[in-house]
Amino acid sequence: MGSCPAGAEPVIAGLSQPGPLKDTGEMDDHLKQLLLLGREHYQKREFDKAEYLLKQVVQQTDRFADVFDMLGVIAHAHGDFAQAELNFEKAVALNPNYTEAQLNLMVTYNDLGKYDSAREIYARIRARAAGPTDAFAMGKIANMHAEISQAYQDAGMPAEAVIELERAVALCPSFADLRTRLATLYRDSGQKDRAREQLEIAKQHNPNYVQARVLLGVALLSAGEHHAAIEEFQAVIDRDGEHKSAQMYLKIAQTQQRNSAYPPA
Predict the structure, then answer these.
(1) Distances 164 to 149, 173, 262 between C-alpha atoms, Å
(2) For 234-256, how does the pLDDT look when each residue is reduced to its tens digit (9 = 90+)?
(3) pTM for the structure as a whole
(4) Which residues of 124-135 are buried (b: 16+ CB within 10 A; e: fewer)?
(5) How many CB atoms lie within 10 A of CB 143?
(6) Which of 53, 132, 142, 250 is 20 to 30 A removed from 264 (C-alpha atoms)?
């Protein structure tokens, strides 16, 4: 996406991977080996093996926030939301600035129907994101809004989908792909001017994001602005000579331009 990074990919839907392990004190070799192997199995999504090792770590020390976060993700993957909640709360208690754990806890609260608690976590993240280190948290939250938007679309609730994408764009306005998705929703709801505005802004933020430029070209072509449409399609082809849609639309735009210049008698 744009300059506002989205962070790590989720391990399971809605949950984030933990950051790197941090040693806050001396560890013996056995504990280090447990941590190393536990993380290795976790990264491979071998959750049963990871859980066995990470629980041994917890038996020896309870000072690693990311260990509790990993155990929370594993519990959530197994459908044990209550245990996931306890693990994520422990991770957040150990490190109140642990954004991934807070996001995971927010998802789990929602799964448990604890919506007020989820909103409280969300507000806490947003408050911290207002500071100079906001990029990571804002990107994570923006992507979560985008996922919710997609869920609303899948459920046939376009108005709610638009609201969620608008929230995502407000958090990370430089994400060209989010603006392009919002433009598509606007277009599908008949708001052509708003769709075009989003595509133009997306182009400003990332001129190399071809999907926005193709859709902008289509909008221009539909408005009879043939020359501007040709420029957009040509720009896409200059970057990707095999872009079939852009090639097809370019031919259409060129034909329409010729026909408008030389209308049939």
Answers:
(1) 5, 14, 46
(2) 999 999 988 988 999 999 989 98
(3) 0.56
(4) ebeeebeeeebe
(5) 23
(6) 250
Round to whole Å and give the CA distance between 216 and 55. 53
Domains with residue ranges and CATH for the chain: 1-20+28-129 (1.25.40.10)
Q: Of the candidates 229, 165, 177, which has an alpha carbon nearest to the alpha carbon of residue 4?
A: 177
Q: Are 145 and 173 in contact (CB under 8 A)?
A: no
Q: What is the pLDDT of residues 8-66, one digit of tens each?
A: 333 334 454 444 444 444 468 888 899 989 989 988 889 999 999 999 999 999 889 99
- Gyration radius (Cα) of the chain, Å: 24
Q: Which of 199, 161, 196 is nearest to 177 (CA)?
A: 199
